């Protein structure tokens, strides 16, 4: 089946008596699409049931339900190598560790077809980049949001990709972030746990969900307090879900400074601090989040590797501004 922009539609019949999982029913109804592909489309908000967007693959379909599925048009087959400067922290024949700047997208996607980290890696690594992650994401084992800066590792061989992917899946990779958040977390040290999935009201956002989603656990520790306006917090990932730190800190009532997606209430918070400082903080152009620590076992040598990144200038300047409170 070729991807199409026109929706595919079908109505459930007696085969759905008693309730059938949405992803299973779609796989049987549209056999040219794999169940994993259908699951991704559901989670991306491309499936409606009786006109309502359903983002959970486990949702039940019953006789009479009208289902509509939109399969996006295909993207060009292969990313192009592009000469984009990279800050290389470590590199050998098996893998490469990059200190990613804010503003750089990790891999091509709708809206960001090129000038991504993948394009830069294809240019830097030439023929050695692993393709096991798929032609659109060669070598990519994990990701950072576009506006999150910091350390990211990519595989240059299939064996390294398998080894790194296993460590991420088993949650044995050490990852820590600096985040500047609104307010002062109470208690100053703790854990946030809650399954993260697509928001049922806005498919472009993630949320802590009561049903479905994936287990997510973030451990945080307050490092510095700026009056009662903001804090510098260290966050460590026990799991790695999309927007995990942003969602979890917002759920505590302490969204990241500069987070346009999850930073509700930032104007009200800014109203309680010095107007000049408030103007500088509310104009911060990205979520104040930096992946400063990355540690893992080298998949080929067995050596324990641990890398640290300095605080970027924009977040350092932000903390200095807050210290003037």
Structural overview:
The structure is a single chain. With 325 residues, the protein is α+β, with helices and mostly antiparallel strands. It has three domains: 62 residues, Roll (Structural Genomics Hypothetical 15.5 Kd Protein In mrcA-pckA Intergenic Region, Chain A), CATH 3.10.290; 82 residues, Pseudouridine synthase (2-Layer Sandwich); 119 residues, Pseudouridine synthase. 22% of the residues lie in helices and 26% in strands. Strands 7, 8, 9, 10, 11, 14, 15, 16 and 17 form a nine-stranded mixed sheet that branches. A four-stranded antiparallel sheet has the order 1-6-3-4. Strands 2-5 form a two-stranded antiparallel ribbon. It is globular and about 65 Å long. The N and C termini lie far apart (60 Å).
CATH architecture of the largest domain: 2-Layer Sandwich
- CATH fold-level topology of the largest domain: Pseudouridine synthase
Give the strand tally.
17
Shape type: globular
Overall pLDDT level: 89
Poorly predicted residue ranges: none
Q: CA-to-CA gap between the ends?
A: 60 Å
Q: Which percent bin holds the helix content?
A: 10-25%
Strand content bin: 25-35%
Order of helices and strands: EEHHEEEEEEHEHEEEEEEHHHEEH
Which sheet architecture does the biggest sheet show? 9 strands, mixed
Number of helices: 8
Structural class: alpha+beta
What kind of assembly state do the chains in view correspond to? single chain
The structural domain count equals 3
